[in-house]
Amino acid sequence: MKVGNQTIVFKNKPKIIGSYSVAGEKEGYGNFKEYFDYVLKDDKFGEKTFEKAERKIIEHTIFKAIDSANLTVADIDLLVSGDLLNQIISSSFTARHFDSTFIGLYGACSTMAESLAIGACMVDAKHFINVACATGSHFSTVERQYRYPLELGNQRPPVSQWTVTGAGCSILSLKGKSNIRISSATFGKVTDYGIKDANNMGAAMAPAAMRTIITHFEDTKSKPEDFDLILTGDLGKLGSEIFLDLMEHHGYKLGNNYNDCGQMIYNNNQKTFQGGSGAGCSAVVLNSYIFKKLQEGTFKKVLFAATGALLSPISSQQGESIPGICHAIVLERSDD
Amino acid sequence: MKVGNQTIVFKNKPKIIGSYSVAGEKEGYGNFKEYFDYVLKDDKFGEKTFEKAERKIIEHTIFKAIDSANLTVADIDLLVSGDLLNQIISSSFTARHFDSTFIGLYGACSTMAESLAIGACMVDAKHFINVACATGSHFSTVERQYRYPLELGNQRPPVSQWTVTGAGCSILSLKGKSNIRISSATFGKVTDYGIKDANNMGAAMAPAAMRTIITHFEDTKSKPEDFDLILTGDLGKLGSEIFLDLMEHHGYKLGNNYNDCGQMIYNNNQKTFQGGSGAGCSAVVLNSYIFKKLQEGTFKKVLFAATGALLSPISSQQGESIPGICHAIVLERSDD
């Protein structure tokens, strides 16, 4: 396993000058209910289809994140976004409503980190002034696209995770007031340990998380203890255990400063089995709880490592395994 | 229509130190047969499915592009790639074979320009040394995913284009020998004029091409005459006419230095109606004919503006129109 030379240390440390999170009804009963900016009363958000609802959630989140930065839509120079739907239609159709350039990504559930890493590169290099980074997912669009129609009422296996309905958006800039900055980004490598079970995505993504996080430590000469929180994207409970085992196998014993967005988002009574997943999972946790704890000063340095499972129904049908990826950024609190 | 402030002018002007193109059998009978590096004898490329063939074509193209730059796989620090398949599986699965970081994109048929623009930003900022930018498409995967199963034998409407089977890859670096450089990039805005006919993608993408190209002229204070070639991605014949009309309407009369990859790739006897399309279309034209003409000195400055139609079958079924996007880069010949 070759690691190293994947980390960008930002000279100008782009600030997060605005953020917003919208969560679904079920997520609103979970562990972060007081932290979400808005909780849906109706998962269709007044739309006719779940796909249109997903798009509206992402749109609404971006508009509100721009507001929170005391900017107007016209101030946003670049939108970096992706989602889980085929041809990232939620993001592309959302982008019609913003008169800004658009970089469309596909990074599965790693999208929040991928978009922040690319956005931070653009802001750091002063190519664009204000950049919106966003993603989201919807339980009902993802289930029917990746697995089975909801109407089938399929039984969920115990290793499965529950796709989060929700979206998050962060506004990056060198201007404006904020005490949260992105100090570095580590882009990940596609890693495939041969997992073929499309219900066990935590296991498929854990090796990628291990690789990116070890790379980050080696590239920046940092240690797990340097972080108040090392947060993986959505490995879920089982995936997190596998990740911790893999880390230990490579000589890194993580302590209480490790957690996982998928593991954290729901409470134990919500029958989600291994926890949350979906591009929206790490997006809503980051843009609510994590940023608030950074603002308050509870956290000073967070390694946010969002993970993605790069499968499609076609690849599964053709007998392929599930490659994983993990992109990471470091968030630091500094008095502005 | 707000234009401007979307162009990045590169300080270090990343060089294109290697490139490769693989084209399908049909494309091998078209106008650029002598320019393609490799023409397939069998569109399945020895694989069992068209999807596996598409992936193998992209993989092979990247390996050969690395060879052409006199580098090894281990020298590549970053792969920036996307494709038309759901969840960009061709790119993600390809990335398993390269021990490099991976940025997955979705830009539909604009991917070649999107990947080069992002790759150039990364090389220009010295975040990565050698970056591979790649994309491709396959007629048989795209038809069955976006439109109908091939076995149905549906009649193609006269406004349709033919999805190119092929892939292209360019290697960017500040090191190495090359007389082709990327001097600037203009990221595009999502533009939707309300076209709903999924067979008439040229019309859907033409407004985006017009907007990005005018933005490029305004941002860089350049004129159409400054370029030896202004090349749109794959508007096809009808789309190119619409594009020229839109440009004229905005005060830009383009002359003989304008052409379109979709319009150029096939000859008139190949019954492709409006010409070529697909992410592979502009990728193979750029990585064969265009680079060779730049190397020879026939072209000194080329504006390459790849266009993408951001539809999905789901968005069409739900009555949506087709948003378009166009990303552009400027290629300049300079004696190394």
Largest sheet entry of chain A: 6 strands, mixed
Low-pLDDT stretches of chain A: none
Assembly state here? homodimer
Shape of chain A: globular
Largest interface: A-B, 54 and 54 residues
Q: What is the number of domains of chain A?
A: 2
Terminus-to-terminus distance of chain A: 39 Å
Instruction: Tell me what the CATH architecture of the largest domain in chain A is.
Output: 3-Layer(aba) Sandwich
| Sheet/helix structural class of chain A | alpha/beta
How would you describe this structure to a colleague?
The structure is a homodimer of 336-residue chains. The first copy, chain A, is of the alpha/beta class. Chain A folds into 2 domains: 8-173, Stage V sporulation protein AD (Peroxisomal Thiolase, Chain A, domain 1); 180-333, Peroxisomal Thiolase, Chain A, domain 1 (3-Layer(aba) Sandwich), CATH 3.40.47. Chain A contains 10 helices and 14 strands. In chain A, the strands form 3 sheets. Chain A has a 6-stranded mixed β-sheet with strand order 1-9-14-13-10-11, with helices on both faces. In chain A, strand 10, helix 7 and strand 11 (258-260) form a beta-alpha-beta unit. In chain A, helix 2 packs across helix 3. The longest helix of chain A is centred in the middle third of the chain and has 20 residues, at 201-220. The relative contact order of chain A is 0.20. The mean pLDDT of chain A is 96. The interface between A and B is large, with 54 and 54 residues.
